[in-house]
Amino acid sequence: MATRSAMAMSLLSRVLLAVTAVAAAAAAAGDDRGKIGICHGRVGANLPSPEAAAALLRQNGVTRARLFLPDPAVLAAFASAGIDLVVGVPNENLTFLASSGPDGAARWLQSTILAHAPAERVRYLAAGNEVLYSNPFYAASLVPAMRNLHAALAAMGLDGKTKVSSAHATSVLAASYPPSAGAFDAASLPVLRPMLRFLADTGAPFMVNAYPFISHASDPANVELAYALFGGAAAPVRDGALEYTNLFDATVDAVAAAMEKEGFGGVPVAVTETGWPTAGHPAATPENAAAYNAEVVGRAARGVGTPRRPGVPVEVYLFDLYDEDGKPGEEFERHFGIFRADGSKAYDINFA
């Protein structure tokens, strides 16, 4: 029977190998994941035009954005402004893309995306959003659709430019505390295992939508505000030799640990949504939103990585460009906007 010290060394060796693999892949790709992006949802009335939204991003030094839908006008405006895009593939399109083969996927790509934005502006295709959480009907179509989209891109000579992944809710994890105990929900593994193989083979990241605010709002007794906010007063979480002072890092590393358990420690993590609302909850204030998002931006810019993957930048997309007054759910869901509709900032923040 292995001694505890030998087991600990074995675990440390696996972690170091995973970090080395992720860092090597990043270096080989000319990694620039430290740049920040901003999500642009359009579930609202009286939102500024796509052209105004794109200009606002450029005026603030932001050159990446996530679009949840392949809206032709938004694609054209953002691409013309030189903004690199994560383009969402709607959940309801996955069945067709899974069954139509690479040729059908190529036709969809050409008519839905590439007719409006050149391929050099499309950084990722996010096939579905939180399918395993909110639309399990499409789960069986998810990986086949991703494979067909990748095959279509490869046939066009674009697979080195545009990567295919899928954005997940953190509920894809069955365990996340401490982060080293991170493990995927067993019911999702029949989809996640082939997806992880695909991501590893194609060099695409595992995408996760992470909201420490929602974790705090849902369970304030166990998720203290300071820990969700990167606050210096937060009681640190010890996890073996590692220490966590914030929930953002802990979430990213729980995902990394879950991937390592499945044998895919070399797959990077991209946070495709994170943010903090300014109203609709006692903790939702402009001051807290400014503190949270500024810390996310600063950490991305410095490329500090996480305790489990130090020095490996985490690609991050802040949610949301504007408030979306048409969103369902709790009141705070409608107040994640970093900018007001007139282009002024909802709070003081810089993106450099």
Instruction: Provide a count of the helices.
Output: 12
- Describe the main β-sheet briefly: 8 strands, parallel, barrel
Share in β-strands: 15-25%
Q: Strand arrangement, largest sheet? A: 1-2-3-4-5-8-11-12
Uncertain spans: 1-13, 23-30
Structural class by helix and strand composition: alpha/beta
Topology as H/E string? Answer: HEHEHEHHEHHEEEHEHHEEHEHE
Report the radius of gyration as a whole number of Å. Answer: 20 Å
Shape: globular
Please, what is the average pLDDT?
92
Strand tally is 12
Oligomer: single chain
**Helix residue percentage:** 40-55%
Q: Kindly report how far apart the N and C termini lie.
A: 52 Å
InterPro entries: GH, Glyco_hydro_17, Glyco_hydro_17_plant
GO molecular function, one term: glucan endo-1,3-beta-D-glucosidase activity
Family: Belongs to the glycosyl hydrolase 17 family.
Signal peptide: 1-27
